[in-house]
């Protein structure tokens, strides 16, 4: 129970910080503006009552937005000299990591909720496949879980917010670009390498297929980066 209460306390603290941060509103507004643009272009170019083009672009938008949302979590604490106080607080380290991760994920879910008007528009003017749309949004949530964890890890490595944001993007880019390995590697090698790519595991969600292998990929992806964040902070605690 101590761990749960600690994570809950950190989650509330970080959400309050987001609520008074102009940067959070800037990224929220930017995300929604880009979402509207992608929605318009998707309908204009394909003529489909579908969010296929929008969702693919929202995923790559998260790659750049989420590291910028998470960059302040530990970097700002280190810069202000409050990280040591946080690490010595009577709260399990795992609760600190999970609480901050959940706060970023909550903000991302609010951003995704803001795009909920687009399926409503499609339902009014067309006949979309609601199962595919629901599964696609689950894919975006899975991406948000993994990308938030990776951004949190980047923030634990430096005391500079901008450097943390850029580092988070650099960490995530290989997982996004690896699907192009077939153009650079032999076929057998390319097939093996592509299994680590985000796009490969996101495609089934966009088709409306909930594959356990793809779900497991994002669960492991998220867990690995949360664990790396924990280890990074733990090593600093004992310096």
Helical fraction: over 70%
Strand fraction band?
under 5%
What are the low-pLDDT stretches, counting only 5+ consecutive residues below 50? none
Radius of gyration: 19 Å
Number of domains: 1
In DSSP terms, counting alpha (H) and pi (I) runs of 4 or more, how many helices? 12
Largest sheet data? none
Cα separation of the termini? 29 Å
Count of distinct strands: 0
Structural class: mainly alpha
Mean pLDDT: 83
Order of helices and strands: HHHHHHHHHHHH
| Gross morphology | globular
Describe this structure in words.
- This protein has one domain.
- The chain is mainly alpha-helical.
- 81% of the residues lie in helices and 0% in strands.
- The longest helix is centred in the middle third of the chain and has 26 residues, at 130-155.
- It contains twelve helices and no strands.
Which helices and strands appear, and what pairs or packs with what?
Elements: H1 2-19, H2 22-46, H3 52-70, H4 72-80, H5 83-87, H6 93-114, H7 117-125, H8 130-155, H9 161-177, H10 187-194, H11 198-206, H12 212-237
Helix pairs in contact: 1-6, 2-3, 3-8, 3-9, 6-8, 6-12, 8-9, 8-11, 8-12, 11-12
Summarize the structure.
This protein is 81% helix and 0% strand. The chain is mostly helical and 239 residues long. The longest helix has 26 residues, at 130-155.
Tag the structure with descriptive keywords.
mainly alpha; 12 helices; globular
